Amino acid sequence: MTKGPPHWQHTPLYDRHRLLHARIGDVDGWKLPAAYGSQIEEHHTVREDAGMLDMSHLCVVDLHGPDARMFLGKLLSNDVGKLKTAGKALYSCMLDQSGGVIDDLVIYYLGEQHFRAVLNAHTAASDLEWIRAKVSEAKADVTVIPRRQDCVADDVEPLAVIAVQGPKAREKVFRAVPASRHAERLKPFNSTIVHDPAIGELMVARTGKTGEDGFELLLLASHAGRVWDMLRSAGISAVGHEAWDTLRLEAGMHRIGKDMDLHTSPLDAGLGWSVELDSDRDFFGKSAVCARRQTQQFVGLALEGSAAVPAAHSTVTSGKGAVIGKVTSGTYSPTLGIAIALARVAPDIRIGSQVNVEVYKNRIAAKVVRPPFVRGGI
Fold this sequence. Notes:
The protein is of the alpha+beta class. The protein contains 8 helices and 20 strands. Helix 2 (39-48) packs across helix 7 and helix 5 packs across helix 6 (224-233). The radius of gyration is 21 Å and the shape is globular.
């Protein structure tokens, strides 16, 4: 039997957040820290030093079986055939039959019969339903094992996820968790599994969604509190999800439900690079994506001299007032000191163009830029 998900779940680190007097908010149905103090300071901590985020609401799923690679080749828009070295990671979309984005995810190759996916919290329940239905339809010899505490089977240990991000993240993780030094030569978008007598199995992945270097640590939920304390003792500051959102937006990284969804083609969301259309490999949604093709382009908007943040679905207009697109998500950029946004606009709008964005019924001038906004961006 699996456990049903009650409303507003707690992660294994909830008590640690309360001890730090975090301001708790609802993040995709989970009680998680919005901030521990100043969101701006937490943002700068990740950009300049190292910060850690509780990401245990993400749903880790292990896929075992002799048909795992074949099945994932049908399930995902990106080609798992690229995964040949243990620990290698791949970003991909999972599409429905109409070519809409069910979820974007990272898949890790742990062995020829063992892959690990990390699903977004917002879509995890529907993702699992879709995956299991497709396994059944394909009659594939694949076992789907969720590892998040609310949907794990009674005989499976749940996992927690802690992201440690920032220019000093790796050195501080090595100091905090000695076993992690086995990942010292790990290249970006790769992972390794290490063993520590005190905390058991630890997956160290050089991935993240902040635009900074660092690790995502996947570990047994029963040891999450101990590892959290070890990381804090090494000088890594706790960071809330408000800062995570400004960080990922500055990095031009997507969020499911905001920047793409079931009604969005991955091509219109700027994710065409993760959709393999030029090979003979077929996957769910491929024919629909080919038929729809690209009708919009995904861009960044830098609101010139303004800290007023455009909301999702805010209208983007040309200098002549014609509607040319919509904002998908926006924020104030602590790094740049201006408001920024991601948007889908008409395909003929050029990078560097001047446009207007509706903010509280006012039209604010903005420059069209190519994300990311930081670390090699504008």
